[in-house]
Amino acid sequence: MSQRPRPRLVFERWTDPVAGDILELADIDVVKLDLGAPAGQGWAALESAHGYQVATRTDIARVEAGQQWLAGPALVRRCDSLLAVCSAGAGYDVIDVEACTSAGIAVCNNSGPGAEAVAEHALGFMLDLAKKITVADRALRSGPIGDRLVLQGSQLLGKTLGVVGMGVIGSRLVQLCAPFGMEVLVFDPYLDEQSAQARGAQLVTLSELVARADFVQVTCPLTAETRGLFGRAEFAAMKPTAFFITTARGPVHDEQALLDALVGGGIAGAGLDVFHDEPPRPDNPLLHLENVVATPHTAGITKEAARDIAVATATQWQMIFEGRRPPRLLNPDVWPRYCDRFHDILGFRPTRPVAAVSE
């Protein structure tokens, strides 16, 4: 009887070394993808890979021709042994889900472990903008303040929070804001009214949310549906005293439309953890506005989150190669064909599926 091939997993880097420690004990051949090495070296690894832990857009942007390492149609066609691709965090815009599904490849993310870090970051943006903490810090460092009343901020107590995308992050943010007694609105086409109420929110349309909210928080993934979700019309409908905050992905909003709204006084300010181009260029005009607080896509980067994500990532890969259904499968329709390909490539059929976790 022939021996089963050893699964091969290619990764760019782990959020924490503990992932490597866990996988070292598994019967998996783990290969590091060096983005800075000659392309032929990377393709040699990927063309024999059964799993690919996809590099982030920020990492890919660091190298010339980095786009080739995204899990898109070209990579899928070239890597015909590939069974599964996973992203490190909740976002999966580095993966073309449709192309993978057509090829019988399972797509997974890690939507839960980093939620606390991102939700706290979003709350931090709210407090910073409302109380003008960064604005006051800049003023204090630049010279005598003069009249402190020019730095007068506002409070969160009793304000209206609008959450776009009530997944794990959005739900946790609502919990964190509970002590402020805020009215919570949510726009999420995949959420029913009963589920929204159970999470302490009122389900509304996007147009109603932007018109009523004092803080518009975007926590949805980047998909074909959400790309360009916030444009001139949405920013024009917001209150001039409202703040726009996003920890989602840059292309969910129109940067030029946001800039115009901020410069023209259409909205009071913005907290941005994501940009169209990452890292953003130093001359990006959004970075030079006093009413903008920005971070370089670091909302989910805490010591605790990095370790939790790494553990979840490694554990999910173990489950995949043991023939179990991954807990964060994003394209469940692929399962029958995936099982056929898994059997053909690794020599046995997945037989121990587990229920997918709630997103």
UniProtKB/TrEMBL annotation:
<keyword id="KW-0520">NAD</keyword>
<dbReference type="GO" id="GO:0051287">
    <property type="term" value="F:NAD binding"/>
</dbReference>
<dbReference type="InterPro" id="IPR006139">
    <property type="entry name" value="D-isomer_2_OHA_DH_cat_dom"/>
</dbReference>
<protein>
    <submittedName>
        <fullName>D-3-phosphoglycerate dehydrogenase</fullName>
        <ecNumber>1.1.1.95</ecNumber>
    </submittedName>
</protein>
<dbReference type="InterPro" id="IPR006140">
    <property type="entry name" value="D-isomer_DH_NAD-bd"/>
</dbReference>
<comment type="similarity">
    <text>Belongs to the D-isomer specific 2-hydroxyacid dehydrogenase family.</text>
</comment>
<dbReference type="InterPro" id="IPR036291">
    <property type="entry name" value="NAD(P)-bd_dom_sf"/>
</dbReference>
<dbReference type="Pfam" id="PF00389">
    <property type="entry name" value="2-Hacid_dh"/>
</dbReference>
<feature type="domain" description="D-isomer specific 2-hydroxyacid dehydrogenase catalytic">
    <location>
        <begin position="77"/>
        <end position="331"/>
    </location>
</feature>
<dbReference type="GO" id="GO:0004617">
    <property type="term" value="F:phosphoglycerate dehydrogenase activity"/>
</dbReference>
<dbReference type="Pfam" id="PF02826">
    <property type="entry name" value="2-Hacid_dh_C"/>
</dbReference>
<feature type="domain" description="D-isomer specific 2-hydroxyacid dehydrogenase NAD-binding">
    <location>
        <begin position="123"/>
        <end position="299"/>
    </location>
</feature>
<keyword id="KW-0560">Oxidoreductase</keyword>
<dbReference type="InterPro" id="IPR050857">
    <property type="entry name" value="D-2-hydroxyacid_DH"/>
</dbReference>
